[in-house]
# Entry
Amino acid sequence: MTRNPSAAEPQDAAALIELYYEKGWTDGLPVVPPSAASVAAMLEAGGLRAGEVVGEVPARNTAVSAEKVAINAVMAGCLPEYMPVVVSAVRGLTNPSFNYHGIATSTCGSSVAVIVNGPIARRLGINAKDNAFGPGFRPNVTIGRSLRLLMMNALNTRPGRLDRSTLGNPGKISLCFAENERGSPWEPLHVERGFTPEESTTTLFATESIIQTANALSRRPEPLLMGMADAMANMGSSNITGQQNMVCVFAELHTGILREAGWSKSEVKQFLYDHARRSIADLKRVERLPGAIEPGDEDKWRHPIRSPQDLLVICAGSMGNFSACMTGWGSHTGTEAVTTLISEV
# Structure
């Protein structure tokens, strides 16, 4: 894809959109045809030069230029002021610890979740409340979509080629949301991970699914968290064998219960770790672990994370009786959640 793909092509927008479909440059939805002016505006907003390298994927022998990031951000429908968030997310995507190549080519079909923290989330209107994972908010959808378009157009991660997903999931189009920091009783995710409250960040997490957990009756932490722990330890997930990061998202109503009880984030993590487990015997019965059941296996436990510190606990969503856990891709040796500073011009 060149800097200005429309320069020598028909100027009618509908014709350009159809041309981009023919070229395979879309995610299945119409895109915004980029122009020299729109790409330049995106680069300026990100404080970048066209040829500047934003990130590299050695397994693909590919360097991702700022120009390619800008083009795909325009195509996704981003406003220029979103560009610093997109750039941060791309830097997280190409961080070796995130392991882009494994995530993108796996048959598991994971999506890339982008969690935005800090003042920029509020300034840009990145949704953290009603329908936080869903449609209806331009920055959420277009920032997340820009990553997928970049993955397809700059890194050739297309279905049936380098994208070998067995089923995939709709989060692969876009999955971007902010933490509801104002509604949280705890320090925000980015502060927990070493940044200041005044800084803004993206945290990228490779997730294979979102499991909603419902509880309309409980007003105590323990019963509420038991439902979350059970969802975390489902025997079909990658986590129960891979023990990679997981994300638990508590919406406002459930967060309020934990706040009123005075539970700290570390207490929530410890409780979930202690109760999210399956016996070695159970996992051998369903052949998620190899070998015959041995004496003592009924009383030996497998947790979906290695320690409470592998769990990311955040607040997002509105006042319904639901929270959610986001299961991880691969294993703890294959990927880890990555938090990256958003640098503003």
Notes: The first strand starts at residue 53 and ends at 57. DSSP finds 13 helices and eleven strands in the chain. The chain has a mean pLDDT of 94. The radius of gyration is 21 Å.
